[in-house]
Each structure stands twice: as structure tokens, then as C-alpha cells.
Amino acid sequence: MLRVENISVRCGVATTLQDVSFSLGSGRALAVVGESGAGKSTLIGAILGLVPCASGQISWHGAPVCQCHPALVMQEPRAAFNPRLSLRRSVMEPVVAQKMQPDLNRLDQLCQGLELDTGLLDRHPSEVSIGQAQRVGILRALIAAPPLVLFDEPLSALDAVTQKHTARLIAQMQMQEGFAALIVTHDLGYAAAFADDIAVLRAGQVAEYGAAHAFVAAPQTAYGRKLRDAAFALGALEHVA
Amino acid sequence: MRIFAELVLRAAVVLTGVALATFALLWHAPGDPALAIAEARHGTVVSKEVLDLIRAEAGFDTGFWTAFWAWLSPLLIGDFGQSSVTGRHVWPDLVTAMSYTFPLALISLAIGLVVSVPLALVATRKPGSWMDRGAVALASIGVAIPAFWLGLLLILLFAVHLGWLPAMGAQTKAHAVLPALTLALGIAASLTRILRSGILEARTQTFLPAFYRRGVAAGDVARDHIAPHAAIPVVTVLGLELAFLLEGLVVVEVIFARPGLGSFLVNAIYARDFPKVQAVVIIAAVIFVTVNLLIDVIYRSLDPRMDRRDA
Amino acid sequence: MTITAYSLSVQRAGRTILHPTTVDIRPGERVGLVGASGSGKSTLGHALIDALRAAGTGVAHVPQSPDEALDPLRSMVFHWRETEQALGLAADDARRKDLFDALHIGTGDLRNRPWGWSRGMQQRFVIAMALIGSPDLLVMDEPTSALDPVVAADTMDLLDTYLKTRKTALLLITHDLGLAARRVSRLLVMDAGRIVEDARTARILSTPETAAAKALCAHRNWLELPC
Fold this sequence. Notes:
The structure holds 3 protein chains of 3 kinds.
Chain A: E1 2-11, E2 14-24, E3 29-33, H1 40-48, E4 55-60, E5 71-73, H2 87-97, H3 104-113, H4 130-142, E6 148-152, H5 160-177, E7 180-184, H6 188-194, E8 197-202, E9 205-211, H7 212-217, H8 222-233
Parallel strand pairs in A: 3-7, 3-8, 5-6, 6-7
Antiparallel strand pairs in A: 1-2, 1-4, 8-9
Helix pairs in contact in A: 2-4, 4-5
Chain B: H1 2-28, H2 33-42, H3 48-58, H4 64-76, H5 90-125, H6 130-144, H7 147-161, H8 177-203, H9 208-213, H10 218-255, H11 261-270, H12 274-302, H13 305-310
Helix pairs in contact in B: 1-12, 2-3, 5-6, 5-8, 5-10, 5-11, 6-8, 7-8, 7-10, 8-10, 10-11, 10-12, 11-12
Chain C: E1 3-12, E2 15-25, E3 30-34, H1 41-54, E4 59-62, H2 76-86, H3 93-102, H4 119-131, E5 137-141, H5 149-164, E6 169-174, H6 177-183, E7 186-191, E8 194-200, H7 201-206, H8 211-218
Parallel strand pairs in C: 3-6, 3-7, 4-5, 5-6
Antiparallel strand pairs in C: 1-2, 7-8
């Protein structure tokens, strides 16, 4: 269980996160939505321990988060890989870093789950499509069987059809692997369809936090309603009759 | 305003550091400075008493920090002191030296600009063409050739073989031609390279296609949206360029036997004339810091995003 | 007058990335150009702009992000004047005020450079610039993907309201059928460098005929994905 308790992060004099709290259990998915500058990336940095918290606590089952070796899936699939290495080397990096025994069966199994041809891994990042690169990114995140995976806008570089395909694969992998997923996204449609809970971040604070279907049906705050209506207006959500 | 104060403070720190480093280097240079001064003054071997006198006079016997302060404190009110060899005031001689050096530096810089701008424009008209490759090759050679070698080469050709131009001294304007060319070639070469890459990079900016699509004429786009972006790296590098220029001046003045800051400095070093050496170094540092301050100001007016990043 | 461009095609490095395509758009019509990434939508958009401009049709383009439309070293007023001059128009404060009011950017300081404005305002400024010459066609390339949803929705709504009373047609290029379905009355579906389906939005949504259109329709809605 990931617990984020009353964390605040300051950057110079500005407060980028203020009194943020939520929790996320194994096998569950939490979507963090909000506009750019709301503090979504800072939150990921804070959970990974890359950004120091001025106050509050973040823990995984009572221990510091870094001990559970959380994984991160980044927004720009191609930029997330060293362009000079084959994808296979990049994928195996977490295994090497954690001094684990490489398990080729697991690699094959994950590839199958992510609909990736293992031969693809011998290519370099520039030689695969963006959609494929993102699935390899997910593969790398999952290879060392982390209990917690952070997704930073995992779909925003992909086109609409690929987005939905990739979202479904992420959900299937979660069913199979049972990790806790924290998904930062600006797409309320994705959040509504695939997350159990939604936290709306606004100007560094949690404006709304609750079950995803309840939020989409009836947001509790004016800002939440604005977000939902914008998603309707852009076709990301359909009106629920 | 805060930024201006910060810049001035930075300049003060640099100048203090330069003064201290120069003094320390001279202080710890191998050989007995008093002996060198005595030799420069009298030209013969002198007795121990004379050496002691020189030491006391120059303050060598008081210890490093006392001597440093004794030199620095008059400097703060603009007094460069007297030559430890001739006893003459340093400042008037320094002014004379600068009156030879500055015009030479400015002429070389001007020639460098006049050559490099058209060359870079021609080169970037068609990147990869033979003209571009020619310009890049010329620039690479120009950067690689050391000033002392080029200077001798020019003397050989224009003074010895052709007899068109004088090689030594500074009596007429014609005397300035060869030294100016020697210095200008290096400047032109490095400016051409920077301008060329600056222009090529400015051309790849992602917003440019939108301007063409909006119907803005290609010439206007080049003037208003490519040139300012290409100018930024050039302005940044001009400060460094100045350092090379100062260095080149010393060499060129010695080779062409021209009076000026360079020969002034070299002679002073041979004679261990501390006040003179320090005066030159301080003047050079002041010029360097002032020019870089100016460049900073220009840079900020060219690209005001700098200020926002600072804030 | 219907806007028509005949036989647009593009080859690059010996490969045909746009097969000969004819596009016609009626005055004031809202058309969506949809397809997966790599299907050739942006290529067609650019070819269309070039062809129409060469034929003397007024056409303006709004790129995906304001970063691709504005010079960070130049002020907003510089961009505005420059665009007016490129169109051969005299400076007209009334016209500027009209557009600024319509797109809600009247509060922006024109002496600022682009980064002095919020991204949403920058994007609306770019749209306003595109509308200066009352073009016959406005081409927008993924206009919402670089913006926050709330800002993007506002921007599209303001543009819709403004265009309602004009004869300017809109071509919306997007990979997102969900977005296009809400904004346009006619859809052009692209696949592998060809327009494979051209019909009214409602018809394509209810009975897509080609594989590309079927895939787009099936993945239109997050909450009703096929199993």
C-alpha cells in the first residue's frame, strides 16, 4: 500500500505541492489528473524520492518507497531510451541494476502479454514505432516485477487508436502482475475508463479525490465539473444518459 | 537593477582574483627578483648591499600580504606606481603603449567581422556545397595557424620577397597592415565558424515554417527571425574572442617589433619590473571584464528569456 | 465558391506518401481529416495549403503548438503587424479588437513576447492571427493536443462561435475521432496516404465502411471499447 500523507514540496519560495494525501493499494490504479503546472510531475518526483518533501511522509507498506524499487513509464517513448543501446539492453537495465538473475522466461511472457515480438528487442529505439517503443517502455518497467509502477502521461504521445490499445494492455498486465499503478494523465476519458480512483490536482493541492466512476458521474467541486465538461467538449468522454 | 548590481559584484570579484593571482605568480617565480632588477638597472654584478636596498625598496622583505597590500592600495585610487627599474611613473608609459595597441586591436576586429560575415552568409547559402566546404576549410586552417607563424610568413612574402610593406616598427600606417592581417585572420576564422553554425541552427527552428506559410517574405524571415537567433551565440563567443585577441597582440607586437602593451609587458617581465607587469595585467583584466559586462547586457537585450530563467 | 484542390500528391525519397487526392470544401463547412499517425493527414494538410495558396485562395494554418508558430524573441505586436503586412493589409485596430474579443485575449499585453503569455492565450493569439485576412479556409493541425483540456475546450468553443457567422471553412486534422465527431459535420478518413472514406460525420459514426474508419470508430470512446 502506497501512502502519501500530507506532503508539501517547496521550490524556492513557491509551494508546488501542498498538503497532498492519498493512498493506493496493490492491484489498484489511481489516476492523478490536472492541468500542466498543477504539480503532477513534482508528485512523481516526490514519490520516487527525486524531489525532497518539505513536510509529510510517503511510504510503501510502512517502509521508504525506494526500497520497493518502483518503476517509471515516461511520456516520450523514444526519448526514454538510450539511442545507442539495443532495446534489449535497455529493457534489462532494471534487472542488472537490482543484481537480479535475468529470467528469459519472464521476458518472453511479458513480451507476449504486451504483444511484442521478442525480435523487436534487438532493434534500436529509432527503429520501432512510437507505439511499440512505449510498450517496450512498459516492458522495461515491469521486467523486475515492481510492486509499484508510476505512469507519467503514458499515452499522450500516441494516436487515439494506439492509446486505447496500450491502455488495455496496461490494464491486462496489471491484472496479471498485481502491481499498484499511479497514472498521471490529462485525459479524463482514460482515467474514467481504467482507474479505480481519481485525484484531481490543482495548483499543488488535491481538489477532489474519490472513486473514478463517481467523479465522472457527479464531480463535487466546480473545478472538477469544469474538467469533466471539457472532456465532454473534446470528445474524450460521452455524456452518460 | 538587481541584475546590474550582481554583474558589478561579479566583476569586482574577478578583478581582485586577477590581482592576487598575478602578484602571487610574480612573487613565487623562480630566480631572485632583486637580482633581475639590479641587472636591469646596472647591467653588472652588484654587491649584496645594493640587493638588500632593492629588496627593501620593492617591499620584498616585508612578506607576501604586506607587499600585496602595499601595491594594491594605491591601485584602488588609480595610482599604478613607479617602475622598479627606471623609477619612472608607470601610467604615462602605459598610456603610450595602449595608444599603439588599441587601434591595432580594433582594426583587426573590424577586418575579422568584415571578412567573416559575408563568408558565413555565402557558406550557409547552400550548406554542403563546395563554397560551404571551402569556407569551413579556410576557417579551420585559420583557427589552427598560430599567430607567430602566420606573422613570419606574411613578413617573408610581403616584406622580404615582394617588398610591398614594412615589417618592423610602427612609424607609418603601412606598418600596421601586416600585424593587423595576422591578428584578423584568426578572428575571422573563428567568427566564420560560429556564425555559420549559428545561422544553420537558427534555420532549423520549428516555428519558421509557420512564418513562410503565413506569407512572410523569405528575406524578412531571414532578417527578423533567423538573424537575431544566429547572433546570440556570436555575441556570447565575442568575449572569449577578446581573450584570444589580447594573447595574439602580445605575440604579434613582439614579432613585428611594434611598441605597445605586448612589448611593454614582455620587457617588464624580463626585468622583473613588478609594477609594470601588474599594471598591464590589471588593465587587460579591466578591459576583459568590461567587455564581458557589455556582452552580458547585449545578450540580455537580445534574449530576454535569460532574465526570466534567473528569476 | 467551393474550395477545390485537384490531384494533390506527395513523394518523398521515392515513396509515395500521398496518393493523388482531390479535396473540395464548401464555404463555411467544417471538415475533419482523421487517421492514425503516419496515415498522411498532415502531409495532405500541407499540400492542400500550398496548392490553395498558389491558386490564390485565402488559406491559413494553425500548427499543433504555439511554439511552432511564434518566435520567442519577438513581441506579440511584431507578429501581428508582420502578418498584416504579409497579407497586404493596413493596420486596423478595430479588426484586431474584434478578433481579440472573440477569442478572449484582449487582456494580453501585446508588447510581451510569447512566453509572457499563457499557452492557451498564445494558441488563441495564433488562431486570431490566422483569421486576420478572413481566409476562405482555416486548417488546424491537432489544435488541442498541446493544451490542457479545459483551455482546449474553451478555445474550440470560442472559435466555433466566431466561425458560425463567417464563411470561413474549417479543416480539423486530428487522430482523435472523438474530438472530430464533436466539432465537424463531415469526415475524411485517411489511411496509408489515401482518403478512404468521405462522408457526413453521423454516417461514419453509425456505419463505418472501411477498416480504418471502423478502427477509429471502435476506439472513439474510452468507456465503450470493444472487447
